[in-house]
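To illustrate the input format used throughout this study, we show a single complete record. The first block contains the structure-token representation of the backbone; no residue identities are included at this stage. The design step must infer an amino acid for every position from geometry alone.
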């Protein structure tokens, strides 16, 4: 039965935690403005029937958008959408609970599997029959108090993946796949009272590659790690539910604030200089108007694409608008 609550996956105090081929027509255009007048457009509606709760997102060099579902009631899918919003292909991910997605410079797609503690590699061309070309084992997954979440790459092509429960960032040297702990720190853990109960989450290197920025969702912080010195400091405070992060071409760091239902841009001092999006209610078709629990974002072709995870987190009934979402969407926001 679909209870709209994630099962308990590990002994922590967590409240949460038909293939469609060819091309279909995108959802009818639906635009909303946030409280500041910025347009938030529904980019795509996830197919029905099928899994919900879109979380991970990535874009390839051609501007195609890749969206992974984080559903514990049925097999998750990786959807590939064209730039016009039409569904290009659907890749089933049996047995996986995918979170972070990221492309390497070579055009291979890497997927962090929250459930198994593996990073999965997919190589193009991507089709409905695609399966992982390689699997890199980082930890034993959510049942072992390890939760792989976001992925990023450095200039040398090595992969980095966050562990939201263990408070770590692991490094995978490609192509061989040697795995090591890049960073482990108490500041990366969720703590006993944080909410949502995820620590180290979104990852992004600055353009120079000198600093790795890390979102800690539970304590609403963006952390900054200086690679040369190994110094970890707080870059920004009070970003409510800091989740996925990405730098734009201006050097601003965009953050999905999943508990504020917005995305914010931080300047080089960690100050909020832009806010986009807001929750405007549930539409007649059961979809979000605006943003609701924006979990991950990607910047492609001067637009920000944001997944509306819309995941209920509390055990109470009737206290969260996420409970009323029956149609799952990805939003698009103009960057400039």
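Output of the design step:
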């Amino acid at each position: 039965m679909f209870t709209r609550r994630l099962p308990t996956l590990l002994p922590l105090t967590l409240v949460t935690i038909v293939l469609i081929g060819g091309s279909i027509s995108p959802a009818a255009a639906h635009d909303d403005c946030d409280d500041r007048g910025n347009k938030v457009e529904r980019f795509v509606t996830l197919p029905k029937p099928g899994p919900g709760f879109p979380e991970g997102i990535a874009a390839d060099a051609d501007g195609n958008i890749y969206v992974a579902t984080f559903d514990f009631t049925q097999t998750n899918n990786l959807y590939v959408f064209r730039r016009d919003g039409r569904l290009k292909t659907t890749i089933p991910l049996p047995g996986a609970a995918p979170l972070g997605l990221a492309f390497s410079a070579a055009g291979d797609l890497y997927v962090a599997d929250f459930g198994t503690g593996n990073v999965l590699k997919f190589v193009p061309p991507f089709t409905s029959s695609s399966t992982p070309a390689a699997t890199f084992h980082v930890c034993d997954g959510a049942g072992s108090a390890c939760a792989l979440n976001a992925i990023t790459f450095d200039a040398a092509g090595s992969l980095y993946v966050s562990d939201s429960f263990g408070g770590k960032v692991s490094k995978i040297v490609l192509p061989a796949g040697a795995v090591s702990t890049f960073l482990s720190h108490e500041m990366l853990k969720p703590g006993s009272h944080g909410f949502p109960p995820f620590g180290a989450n979104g990852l992004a290197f600055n353009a120079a590659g000198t600093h790795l920025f890390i979102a800690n969702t539970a304590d609403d912080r963006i952390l900054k790690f200086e690679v040369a010195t190994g110094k970890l400091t707080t870059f920004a405070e009070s970003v409510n539910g800091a989740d996925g992060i990405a730098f734009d071409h201006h050097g601003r760091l965009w953050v999905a604030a999943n508990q504020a239902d917005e995305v914010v841009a931080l300047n080089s001092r960690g100050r909020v200089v832009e806010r986009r999006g807001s929750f405007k209610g549930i539409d007649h078709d059961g979809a979000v108007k605006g943003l609701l629990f924006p979990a991950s974002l990607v910047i492609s072709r001067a637009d920000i694409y944001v997944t509306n995870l819309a995941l209920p987190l509390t055990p109470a009934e009737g206290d969260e608008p996420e409970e009323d979402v029956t149609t799952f969407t990805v939003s698009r926001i103009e960057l400039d």
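Structural context for interpreting the output: The chain has one domain: 31-334. The radius of gyration is 18 Å.
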